[in-house]
Automatic annotation (TrEMBL):
It comes from Solidesulfovibrio magneticus (strain ATCC 700980 / DSM 13731 / RS-1) (Desulfovibrio magneticus). Keywords: Coiled coil. This is Fido domain-containing protein. Residues 4-31 form a coiled coil. The keyword Coiled coil applies. InterPro entries: Fido, Fido-like_dom_sf. Residues 68-198 form the Fido domain.
Amino acid sequence: MSSHKQYRLDLDRIEASLREVQADFDRISEKLLMRREPITDQIIANLLEGYAYVDQLLEDGIEVFSPSGLDHILELNHIVLCGVNDSLRLEYGSHLLETRRRFADGIGAIADYYEAKRHKAAPRRAAGVYVLSVSQPQLFLEGNHRTGALVASYILVQEGLPPFVLTPKNAVAYFNPSTLIKWRDKQKFLDRQYYLKKYRRVLQDFFEETLDKRFRRSLRLDKDVTAKD
């Protein structure tokens, strides 16, 4: 059995952790390199929809880095910005259309990177894709960090590892490198060959050290409960 069929995401525990970060955000903000907007209820709701979408992609065995799967990455960005609200998406139709154009320009290089690194460990691939998405020029107009976290979670859980989820304990160690990555341009030689490689290693180590099994649940347990019912 392949790894991504053995585990699903525990959305209740993911929500609980995001709520803890929300409640503790003033303390977290004091340690950040750059001021961030507070985590609102709507941001949490949209992120949870995003994690649920990742969960379904994994359950369905969809490979998002295949040519036919790339639009699912775009959909994750739409979800973190607008949720699954069709009327809201209509309201922001021109923004989403421009986002689609930007995505079309940038996703090819990221998909090529992923294919070239397919044999590498999942935390390295997740960190590499995140860095390429968040650095300049960014993959999306908005929501690059949140979408990047969801795509990283997909890569990790596909290999049987826990998803990446913000916690009060890991928030500073996630936000600060993300800010530094955003300031770098992958089209500039020094940024690409030195800074972004350095941040990729930092993020890879971060994933390896902070992933938490609380946020995944075994499908075997689901099946056992269903059998007893």
